[in-house]
Design goal:
globular, 548 residues, 42% helix, single chain
């Protein structure tokens, strides 16, 4: 897409391109999403950037009217299998904050200098700048939607020092932290007053606009009840704060997980979203203890436990979609600094960064799939909240029905999962770690010994680091390594690739249900070549095709 085409998208306020590029206006120093309702600037006054971080690095600040941070993430990073795409997925997951640039480079198999050069060339910003933008967006959200003291926001957002926090907020927003807190839109403040602790509002996302946010003052887990912004928070003395440890008051007591309102979020998506089919898919596979589906179809809530870098969490996502294009979510965190990681896990599980327009354009024109696409616009390909968990579940589901695989998963969780200190509804456990399976006889599972061996082999490979299944792994290499493990064949390896690694172009050739659906719809194997690069979505259309 050239710059003239981008400008035409801006003139047309085309929301299909929100998150795929950002528009900066030289005369105002502001960057926007393509669909911004403000007056269209003159062509000579516009610059385009592939990421928000690149716009910020050139001195532009986010538009307060269109909230460019609140758009879905770019679908390009899910499709691309090169180093840049892998790096963007890892940065979004918080790897730079947790492991630094050297940790990112090590995961990618490149030097830090090579990673820096490739990212600068492709997205206009290096890993530090991209992570800095993510931290700033997270801080803005916390400042404008919670009553946390500013010093605690700084560490919760991932900043290493108060001075770094102050400097970054000033550089990106041209405001002090307290001024940024006070700058939330008046309509949001009014909504909060009307609706109380659960008043609806919108703010920025943690990375590239991956979420919208709701106001909440009921943060018994993360904030002092009834506390107000303090004038002294505007500028924290960095020298006096150098010895500040990780703030314990932002931690949730383990036995309080799920016991309060959680952090309310709006997880944004683009285009149509077939929520009913996705919730059907998750509901049929929900493992008791780790997952539960509540309510009737159309008004369901999916709940599950999450194992995040700093602790446990519980997520709740509603089936009903918001008119502005989002899923309502509550995230109960054991540690507030897991906020970004928790959001990314959910975005992958619910396939929220997908581009349904591109999928529909390719598959909708296919003589076999066209009618299926028109019948279910916005069908998604569910991913996984935890790729290692998904890999274990894939082995449990080998050569059995979905129901039988789910029951095996429930037996595994009950026998070897980590119990929550206090259950939350039907949620009682975290899914077992790979190390918990590696040297375990797994006698509690009613399955052949050959498959127990497969589980132990997989657990040992993951626990020992011989196999990695993270957002930035090379998918081809991961598939080869999976196939080298005892008991893992092509179907299992490619199923893990599709869901665990988020590959949008996987076709499970040997899947019995897919074969039946293809025969039912008059398709042959050769037709699948025309479905690239969206064969994962083609499979879901076939899986959902009616049986006469």
């Amino acid at each position: 897409m050239n710059e003239d085409a981008r400008y035409e998208a801006v003139r047309g306020r085309d929301a299909r391109f929100d998150g795929e590029f950002f528009t900066a206006v030289l005369t105002t120093g502001i960057y926007c999403r393509p669909s911004c309702p403000a007056m269209t600037p003159k062509r000579e006054n516009v610059r385009f950037f592939p990421t928000a971080a690149a716009a910020q690095g050139s001195g532009f600040r986010a538009c307060r009217r269109c909230r460019p941070d609140a758009v879905p993430g770019s679908p390009e990073w899910n499709v691309r299998a090169d180093a840049v795409g892998r790096a963007m997925r890892l940065i979004a997951d918080g790897v730079v904050d947790r492991e630094g640039v050297n940790g990112l480079a090590s995961r990618l198999g490149y030097s830090a200098r090579q990673v820096q050069r490739q990212l600068n060339a492709e997205v206009g910003a290096g890993p530090v700048a991209l992570a800095r933008a993510q931290r700033a967006h997270t801080a803005r959200v916390l400042l404008q939607t919670t009553q946390l003291p500013v010093s605690e926001v700084a560490f919760a957002a991932g900043f290493e020092s108060i001075r770094q926090f102050n400097d970054t907020i000033r550089a990106i927003y041209a405001l002090t932290p307290t001024q940024l807190r006070e700058a939330r839109p008046k309509r949001d403040i009014a909504a909060q007053r009307r609706n109380g602790a659960r008043g609806s509002r919108t703010a920025t996302s943690a990375f590239g606009g991956s979420a919208q946010w709701l106001s909440a003052s009921e943060f018994s887990s993360v904030a002092r009840a009834g506390s107000e912004p303090r004038p002294g928070d505007a500028e924290i003395d960095p020298d006096a704060a150098q010895a500040v440890p990780v703030i314990s008051s932002i931690e949730v007591a383990a036995d309080q997980l799920g016991a309060n309102g959680g952090i309310p979020l709006r997880l944004a998506f683009r285009g149509p979203y077939a929520a009913a089919e996705l919730f059907d898919f998750l509901g049929r596979r929900a493992i008791a203890g780790v997952e539960e589906m509540l309510g009737e179809r159309g008004e369901r809530t999916y709940r599950r436990t999450l194992r995040l870098p700093a602790g446990a969490a519980i997520a709740e996502v509603d089936e009903q979609t918001g008119e502005g294009g989002w899923l309502e979510c509550r995230l109960h965190l054991g540690a507030l600094r897991d906020l970004t990681a928790g959001i990314q896990r959910l975005r992958r599980l619910f396939d929220l960064d997908a581009d349904p327009y591109a999928v529909s354009e390719r598959l909708g024109a296919d003589p076999v799939l066209g009618s299926l696409v028109r019948a279910r616009p916005g069908l998604r390909a569910p991913g996984a909240a935890d790729a290692e968990e998904l890999a274990v579940r894939a082995i449990l589901g080998q050569q059995v029905t979905v129901t039988a695989g789910r029951k095996l998963g429930e037996a595994l969780v009950a026998a070897y999962g980590q119990p929550l200190p206090q259950p939350s509804g039907g949620l009682t456990h975290l899914f077992p770690l790979p190390a918990d399976l590696a040297d375990n006889p797994l006698d509690a599972l009613g399955m052949p010994e050959s498959r127990r061996i497969s589980l132990r082999t997989l657990g040992a490979a993951l626990a020992g680091g011989a196999l990695r299944l993270d957002p930035g792994v090379d998918r081809d290499e991961a598939e080869r390594e999976l196939l080298a493990l005892r008991g893992i064949g092509p179907w299992t390896a490619r199923y893990i690739r599709m869901r665990g690694l988020g590959d949008p172009d996987v076709l499970l050739v040997g899947d019995v249900a897919i074969k039946a659906a293809m025969r039912r719809n008059g398709a042959v194997d050769a037709d699948a070549h025309a479905w690239q690069p969206w064969r994962s979505y083609a499979m879901h259309y076939l899986w959902n095709s009616p049986i006469a």
